[in-house]
Amino acid sequence: MVARVVDLRSDTVTKPSDAMRAAMAAADVDDDVLGADPTAQSFEAEMAATMGKEAALFVPSGTMSNLIAVLVHCDVRGSEVILGDNSHIHVYENGGISTVGGVHPKTVRNNPDGTMDVDEIVAAIRSKDGALLYPTTRLICLENTHANCGGKCLTVDYTDKVGEIAKGHGLQLHIDGARIFNASVALGVPVDRLVKAADSVSVCLSKGLGAPVGSILVGSKAFIDKAKILRKTLGGGMRQVGVLCAAAYVAVRDTVGKLADDHRKAKVLAEGLKKIKQFTVDSSSVETNMVFFDIMDSRITPDKLCQVLEKRNVLTMPASSKSVRFVLHYQISDSDIQYALTCVEKAVEEILTGGGKLEHLANGTTKNYYGH
Ligand SMILES: Cc1ncc(COP(=O)(O)O)c(C=O)c1O
Ligand SMILES: C[C@@H](O)[C@H](N)C(=O)O
């Protein structure tokens, strides 16, 4: 009997479906570095059309996809990119745009809804008069949905407004659209319209869409031609990559239609968590597939709660020193949610009655902490 595991750590944990595995096995492949893998070529063309852009490039990860985008847009020494202080590119990508690309980050405060105030964006744009002293602004990055802001959606009006600012100042606009399909579904806006103002978009196929690996980077043909070279520079050129693109094609075909149900399940989970008096959950702010909640009782730390839940095979991750994040995906069922809620209630009781002991790892740290 296989033990039931409810994995709410992230939507990155989705495992390939049988249809994806079958497509991988049957994929028509060739060396994509020496020419063009036929499956990759058709998948890239399909995704470019879906996103309303000229061209697309399959990339091994969202981190590499964002890095390539920033480096293509900021291909002159002394470049600066305006991005959110709580953005994935700034917080979770090892500072790659600087350490690898030599691009200077100019952070602007992220609002709780994932936006950056447009007047703060404008104020962050370097004056050309200061060229002797300052870096040169070349790019603005947005993130939609915004992972660290609870999976919030950036509206099409806001995105268009930032696009106008970029264009008006001779800048490019990149969207980290790891979960752009979640935003499109939640807002009821076609994905190509949602990203119309962007010069480039990175889309994760390996999150809620359920593909085992990869992201797709879209933009103009000239942009993608440069991106392809940079992907090779970074070691991301792949040989018979059609095996992965075949799974990604199935993911887009089969799973986009399930994202609305992920959002519904997130609200069900949030409503259940609200009933636990030691937690504060703003369920009205659950827009997509993420639920963040604060723990108001100091006896219950996020690490301790996650460790006690893990003993019951409910996997999740701390989001900060006093909050926890649950992420829903299509491989979580409604009964999984009810089971998880029961386990959370029991875990709280166990901790408050002294049952839950925090096991520190050898180096004194605790597990899975995505600290800010
Ligand atoms: C908003 C966002 N952007 C980019 C990434 C990076 O994707 P990957 O894990 O494939 O590098 C992630 C998560 O992984 C993410 O949540
Ligand atoms: C943590 C972060 O890198 C990952 N994208 C996630 O949301 O799980």
Automatic annotation (TrEMBL):
Q: Which cofactor does it need?
A: pyridoxal 5'-phosphate
What would be an example GO MF term here?
Answer: L-allo-threonine aldolase activity
Which residues are in the Aromatic amino acid beta-eliminating lyase/threonine aldolase domain? 7-294
Q: Quote the cellular component terms of the Gene Ontology held in the record.
A: cytosol
Instruction: Please name the GO terms of the biological process aspect recorded for this protein, alphabetically.
Output: glycine biosynthetic process; L-threonine catabolic process
- Enzyme class, spelled out: lyase
Give the Pfam families listed for this entry. Answer: Beta_elim_lyase (PF01212)
Pathway listed for it is: Amino-acid degradation; L-threonine degradation via aldolase pathway; acetaldehyde and glycine from L-threonine: step 1/1
Q: Which InterPro entries match?
A: ArAA_b-elim_lyase/Thr_aldolase, Low_specificity_L-TA-like, PyrdxlP-dep_Trfase, PyrdxlP-dep_Trfase_major, PyrdxlP-dep_Trfase_small
Keyword annotations for this protein? Lyase, Pyridoxal phosphate
EC number, UniProt record = 4.1.2.48
Task: List the catalysed reactions.
Answer: L-allo-threonine = acetaldehyde + glycine; L-threonine = acetaldehyde + glycine
Q: Does the keyword Lyase apply?
A: yes
**Sequence positions bearing N6-(pyridoxal phosphate)lysine:** 207
Q: Which family does it belong to?
A: Belongs to the threonine aldolase family.
Q: PANTHER family attached here?
A: L-THREONINE ALDOLASE (PTHR48097:SF9), L-THREONINE ALDOLASE-RELATED (PTHR48097)
Instruction: Tell me, in a sentence or two, what this protein's role is.
Output: Threonine aldolase involved in threonine degradation to glycine. May play a role in the removal of L-allo-threonine.
What is the name listed in the Swiss-Prot or TrEMBL entry for this protein?
low-specificity L-threonine aldolase
Organism, per UniProt? Eragrostis curvula (weeping love grass)
